[in-house]
TrEMBL record:
Chain segments annotated as coiled-coil in the UniProt record: none
UniProt protein name: Peptide deformylase
Organism: Isoptericola halotolerans
Keywords from the UniProt entry: Hydrolase, Iron, Metal-binding, Protein biosynthesis
UniProt key word GTP-binding: no
Function: Removes the formyl group from the N-terminal Met of newly synthesized proteins. Requires at least a dipeptide for an efficient rate of reaction. N-terminal L-methionine is a prerequisite for activity but the enzyme has broad specificity at other positions.
CDD domains: Pep_deformylase
Reaction it catalyzes: N-terminal N-formyl-L-methionyl-[peptide] + H2O = N-terminal L-methionyl-[peptide] + formate
Length: 224
């Protein structure tokens, strides 16, 4: 019995199946999908809640999204980034011990219909932290984004099981970024515009430390 409340939408499921057949049929990088870039309307539309529209194609799509994320490489990917306007995302990060961004490991996981809210340990809205952030759909660029350090994540996983947990640091930033995609938002909508830098210039000028304070002083933007 399906854990999802809705019906399979044959036209959508068939269209996704056709895309996946092509992707998995390639001898080079099988299952890796093209990543949609900024300017495509699918990235600016609110994704439809997932209610079972894809039927048996859901596991195959999620596997393709995982392969695409890893091949990029990235730490998260939302379905709109591969041209599919459904509220699905995958994320995974090996972490970076000792990193000032609290980049603790985030094991591979699937987010279905995710939502988040900022929380602190006492249950109130908590502090905001700012770091450089990039996006596979804004290839080659990064900018500083201030986000809640800690969030409560709710939604479902790929089996339909409920999610309700608190995430802190970089894992919290990842799920915020991917969930924003499902609302038709890009990280640039929240970024300090004067912080925008090419990846090459980030490596040249600002890679010594994750702390964006030197960039803020030199480029003329404020931090929380």
């Amino acid at each position: 019995m399906s854990p999802w409340s809705g019906e399979v939408v044959p036209a959508l499921a068939d269209a996704v199946a056709d895309v996946l057949d092509v992707a998995f049929g390639r001898p080079e990088a099988p299952g890796v999908l093209p990543i949609v870039q900024a300017g495509d309307p699918v990235l600016r539309a609110s994704a439809a809640p997932y209610t079972g529209q894809l039927g048996d194609e859901l596991p195959r799509l999620l596997e393709a999204m995982r392969r695409t994320m890893r091949a990029a490489p990235g730490v998260g990917l939302a379905a709109p980034q591969v041209g599919i306007g459904l509220a699905l995302a995958v994320c995974e990060d090996a972490g970076m011990p000792g990193d000032d961004r609290e980049r603790t490991p985030l094991p591979y996981r699937v987010l279905v219909n995710p939502r988040y809210e900022a929380v602190a340990e006492d249950g109130t809205p908590g502090e905001r932290v700012a770091f450089y952030e990039g996006c596979l759909s804004v290839d080659g660029w990064q900018a500083v984004v201030a986000r809640p350090r800690q969030v409560r994540l709710t939604g479902q996983d790929e089996t339909g099981a409920a999610l309700d947990e608190v995430l802190t640091g970089w894992p919290a930033r990842i799920v915020q970024h991917e969930t924003d995609h499902l609302r038709g938002e890009l990280y640039l909508d929240r970024a300090e515009s004067r912080s925008l830098t090419s990846n090459a210039n980030l490596a040249r000028f600002w890679s010594a430390s994750p702390d964006p304070a030197p960039a803020a002083a030199a480029l003329g933007f404020t931090l929380p």
